[in-house]
């Protein structure tokens, strides 16, 4: 990426330490606790075979767009609900409400779902290249809805796309794109003629703890108002989505084991009170490493959501201006490793400092290795990107920096860049 924001530097195939391009259609989990992602073929009947992969166990992160991206493919939300690959492929399930039938036996998940489900919608997108479906979260009574950028763009462009949104009561609305933000993978659409919708309540994602109840609500495989539960597995998880360096989107994610699948993208991850703590955006997938075996698709208990504080800030900016801003450090960086060829990251090494940027103003230099942002450890360039993007433009952060064998701290006032 060469957008002027803090991000890992581009490297040729085989350049280490740092990032190695994945095989065609694949990805893996590099060192330092970060997850790299690709967007695999969406799930449609029949599911096309995944590219053959070889080598050791690999972790990738799949985008959550359900539908067909090839012209003439199956319509949005059409899924094959069979165990053996045979049988009919029914259309997407109609919307249904989450109702508490017996308060005495209702669980915390029941209560959370009943509170949040009226604020979660199903988003259908049809374009010249195909169609797909995802989920969304209601922002306002008059029809502003937050979803993922990759949902409204069909992982491409909004040009010529037709968007419809079905609310939890089954009403279908036409919608238009208000604005998109590829950097955070968020977008806002506006429902035409909507009134009296139930806006979601957003929680403070900084208060989320590992082990908290997590309830995912959305339309996996087009099945509207699907509710699954689990816990928050990790916070501040640096996750990069995209098959190449140039199309990577880095998010500072909440990780959950609540089941999320293609079609959940853009939907809500809520806490026990039914408050939105994150916007579901990606899931991990595993390639077995055995020749001829395909990548596992669907939920494996490792999902990722954009934290609510980030999502709400970006959404408000898009509604107000049609675009969003992001905190910028003003460097290019690569993962530093202790030993040549080691896959264990020890920090983010600055390769280039943008003249006149935040890093330059703070005195950072090429060759410096950033090992922490505030009290948050940094072991890879992706983690540095995620930590910076977790902040807002103008925030003042403290970087722990190694230079010439010595460790020091540097105060940086982050710059601003549009998406």
How many alpha or pi helices?
Answer: 5
Q: Helix share of residues?
A: under 10%
Return residue spans where pLDDT drops below 50 for at least 5 consecutive residues: 1-59, 68-95
Secondary-structure element order, N to C: EEEEHEEEHEEEEEEEEEHEEEHEEHEEE
For the biggest sheet, the summary is:
7 strands, mixed
Number of strands: 24
N-to-C span: 12 Å
Biased composition (Pro residues): 39-51
Protein name: Putative serine protease PepD
Biased composition (Polar residues): 1-11
Keywords: Hydrolase, Protease
Description:
With 419 residues, the chain is mainly beta. The protein has two domains: 24-323, Thrombin, subunit H (Beta Barrel), CATH 2.40.10; 326-418, PDZ domain (Pdz3 Domain), CATH 2.30.42. Helices cover 10% and strands 36% of the residues. It is built from five helices and 24 strands. A hairpin with a 5-residue loop joins β6 and β7. The longest helix has 14 residues, at 308-321. Residues 1-59 and 68-95 have low confidence and may be disordered. Residues 318-405 form the PDZ domain. GO terms for molecular function: serine-type endopeptidase activity.
């Amino acid at each position: 990426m060469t957008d002027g924001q803090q991000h890992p530097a581009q490297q040729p195939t085989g350049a280490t330490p740092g990032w190695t391009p994945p095989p065609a259609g694949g990805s893996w989990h590099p060192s330092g606790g970060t997850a790299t992602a690709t967007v695999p073929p969406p799930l449609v009947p029949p599911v096309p075979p995944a590219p053959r992969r070889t080598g050791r166990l690999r972790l990738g992160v799949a985008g959550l767009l359900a539908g067909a991206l090839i012209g003439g493919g199956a319509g949005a939300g059409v899924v094959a609900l069979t165990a053996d690959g045979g049988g009919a492929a029914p259309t997407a399930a109609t919307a249904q409400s989450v109702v508490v039938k017996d308060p005495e036996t209702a669980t915390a998940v029941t209560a959370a779902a009943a509170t949040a489900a009226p604020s979660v919608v199903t988003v259908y997108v049809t374009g010249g290249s195909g169609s797909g479906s995802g989920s969304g979260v209601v922002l306002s009574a008059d029809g502003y809805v937050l979803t993922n950028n990759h949902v409204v763009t069909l992982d491409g462009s909004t040009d010529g796309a037709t968007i419809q949104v079905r609310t939890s009561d089954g009403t279908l609305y036409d919608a238009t794109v208000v604005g998109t933000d590829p950097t955070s993978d968020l977008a806002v659409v506006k429902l035409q003629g909507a009134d009296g919708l139930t806006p979601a309540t957003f929680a403070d994602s900084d208060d989320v703890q590992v082990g908290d109840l997590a309830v995912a609500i959305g339309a996996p495989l087009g099945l509207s108002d699907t509710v699954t539960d689990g816990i928050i597995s990790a916070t501040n998880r640096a996750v990069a989505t995209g098959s190449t360096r140039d199309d990577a989107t880095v998010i500072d994610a909440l990780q959950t084991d609540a089941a999320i699948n293609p079609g959940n993208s853009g939907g809500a991850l809520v806490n026990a009170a039914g408050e939105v703590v994150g916007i579901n955006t990606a899931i991990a997938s595993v390639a077995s490493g055995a020749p001829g075996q395909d990548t596992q698709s669907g939920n494996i208990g490792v999902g990722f959501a954009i934290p609510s504080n980030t999502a709400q800030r970006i959404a408000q900016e898009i509604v107000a201006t049609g675009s969003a801003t992001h905190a910028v450090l003003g460097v290019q960086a690569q993962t530093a490793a202790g030993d040549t060829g080691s896959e264990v990251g020890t920090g983010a090494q600055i390769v280039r400092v943008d003249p006149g940027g935040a890093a330059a103003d703070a005195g950072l230099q090429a060759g410096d290795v950033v090992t922490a942002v505030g009290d948050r450890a940094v072991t890879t360039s992706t983690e540095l990107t995620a930590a910076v993007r977790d902040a807002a433009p103008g925030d003042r952060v403290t970087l722990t920096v190694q230079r010439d064998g010595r460790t020091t701290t540097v105060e940086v006032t982050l710059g601003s860049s549009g998406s």
